[in-house]
Amino acid sequence: MTIEERFSGGELTLSFRGELDHHAARRATRKLELAVDKHLPGACVLDLGGLTFMDSSGIALIIKARRRAGELGASLRVVGVGRQPGRVLTAAGIDRLVSIEALSE
Q1: Residue 61 · residue 85 · CB < 8 Å
Q2: Nearest 5°: phi and psi at 14?
Q3: What is the pTM of this model?
Q4: Section 62-86 average pLDDT
Q5: Nearest in space to 102 (alpha carbons), one of 91, 13, 89
Q6: Which CATH architecture has domain 2-102?
Q7: Alpha-carbon span 79 to 45, nearest angstrom
Q8: If DSSP codes are grouped into helix, strand and coil, which group holds residue 33?
Q9: How confident is the model at residue 104 (pLDDT cuts 50, 70, 90)?
Q10: What is the rounded distance in angstroms from the CA atom of residue 29 to the CA atom of residue 32?
Q11: H/E stretch holding 59
Q12: Which of 52, 47, 93, 97 is nearest to 70 (CA)?
């Protein structure tokens, strides 16, 4: 999995590509923590548009991002959610906690 970091206008965007599973989750979480601590954003965006697979590790990542953003008073959005990751997030009820925007089909 690769993670691209962008920061502009107070908004931090992390774009994920590949598979977000338990093997990649630790690195993804660390990248998220380092980027948030570095930029102290007013808004965080997790772009999942490049994910080909996500398991429950993605849920943990989003919950950690929500908690960290809340500590800063920052907003959190999850964008580019494809069909398979969307099913995982919806089944876990994450769509009730965080703004989730699906990929257009």
Answers
A1: no
A2: -115, 120
A3: 0.93
A4: 95
A5: 89
A6: 2-Layer Sandwich (3.30)
A7: 7
A8: helix
A9: low
A10: 5
A11: helix 56-72
A12: 97
